[in-house]
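Regression check, dinuclear copper ion case 631:
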Amino acid sequence: MSDNNDHIKDLSRRNFLRNSAVTGVAGASLAGGFGAGALVRSRPAEAATNNEHHVEPGELDEYYGFWSGGHSGEVRILGVPSMRELLRIPVFNVDSATGWGITNESKRVLGPNAPLNGDTHHPKVSYTDARYDGRYCFINDKLNTRVARIRLDIMRADKILTIPNVQSIHGLTLQRVPSTERVFAAGEMIVPLNNNGEYLDDPSEYWTMMTCIDAETMEFKWQAIVDGNLDNCDTDYSGRFVAASCYNSARGMTLPEMMGPERDWTVIFDVPAIERAVAAGEYTTIGDSPVPVVDAREQAHQGRNAFALYVPTPRSPHGVNTAPPEGKYCVVSGKLSPTCTVIEWSRVAEWFDGGLSDPRDVVVAEPEVGLGPLHTTYDNRGNAYTSLFLDSQVVKWNIEDSIRAYNGEEVNYIRDRIDVHYNIGHIKASLACSRDVDGKYLTALCKFSKDRFLPVGPMHAENDQLIDISGEQMKLIHDGPTYAEPHDALMIRADQLNPSQVYTRDDPYFAETVAMAQADGVTLERDNKVIRDGNKVRVYMTSVAPSFGTTEFRVKQGDEVTIVVTNMDTIEDVSHGFALVNHGINFEIHPQQTSSVTFVADKPGVHWYYCSWFCHALHMEMSGRMLVEPA
Ligand code: K7E
Ligand code: CUA
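Current build output:
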């Protein structure tokens, strides 16, 4: 990684690197620090600007992109192909701009004593018949073992669950057919099943589980214990199966132990079989958790395991991606093996229905694609695109040809390669997780940007590149710096989402606050009132640009104060913010929204509050005073 330091000091070297990247010399050599060079020399990456993809000022994008924000804890919305960042949706983080984690409404979603951070990896938008229906986006928190649901009308999370009995949720995927009724969350780290401190020292008793959540009620349906650590996962297009890559089949505690066996697994769950057992009461529970747990470990079953199929897969497989538009195949990307494993879903059904004798019989191809294959995505012409971390490339290969090659035919399934900059992780083509796959754009989420942007200190931006995949050859069309650290992304057509412009007054997001006002005899849309209830004080006010309905209120030191603001503006984009100086309080109040915050007024004196969202020529004057009498 000495390249990084050198190029900051030496601009001419940086220019050299940039030029060499354009002419194609740099791709493999820069990535060389991470592993061996490319198996096949790629043709040079084209860094040409491309007018046909340029979104002019004032023009709208063709796609909404949903981006994980990684350890920023958030989800982001980008316009594609411009790659303009349109919104950050705070989820597991505390957000200064919107007051997420500070308002009562967001705290109700986060739950009591919620951690202040998170690590999001896999955003997934809900489906109806394997097409995006624009209702919800689900996202995992690898850091604090949570799953959140984001409402895509208001772009705020409305449910956050902490998953019991497991540690670290990594893979996350959704049922596609008939619609998203279930969310699947893959537990990664193995821990004692009742992790209460009683059993610390016996790793042979550490396990993890797949968790199934009801997407509508956000209640747990079941958990299934597995062998090994679960990684990524995806569902089929029939609504029956979910497959997860599974590394550390040796269940080791250290890297050498984890690297033991040549093969790990792809674990495929038969969801109806598990749910029949749960319905019949054939499950256990663990500790205080009421969630039904079934045992899907191989060793727990005589003969065939009715719940899970363990498909031997070259060591440490990573991405799991079902191929659209019909969902015939599932590709598991090899990571430590230079191969992808192609599984045919109909054969998985055959296995569970009693046919096929060897679990490997569900595998129909295992093409060699290059070094460090992590994730695979698709176009609408039968081609797969796999990210190669070590080669810093995207490789395009044809699925049917890879099957022919697996069956012994002399056929070259590799169609194209392109250098990316650098060390790509996730990859996603437009609509590639749905029936509407259109083969137009592909995002390459690169983990290193090195010399691609102006240096800004030791922390570099990630580089989310955009590639045009509509032709025979891939074409690099955009470098997109992003903040730490997108793992996965997806694109849906602009017409597949219909976000609200203005809240409706009966929005469930602030329904509890409305109920509190009703109990106080307050009409939020009209009243500006202070209600005292012992040492609890509730201050209700409206906001209409450029003033708050209450410009002065009086409390006593030590009072627990709840401030409720209702934005009576009805015009889209006229948002207000309520900021209380020296109290760490600031929050959003968008048109027709009610927001509230509760705190202890512990500082006697005069404290100004002001509107933090520029809303009017007299925005600076939109303010008021909290007067705190000494105790
Ligand atoms: Cu980064 Cu999907 Cu968490 Cu692969 S995972 S790169
Ligand atoms: Cu209201 Cu600024």
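Comparison notes: The CA atoms of residues 63 and 80 lie 5 Å apart. The longest strand covers residues 131-141. No diff flagged against the previous build.
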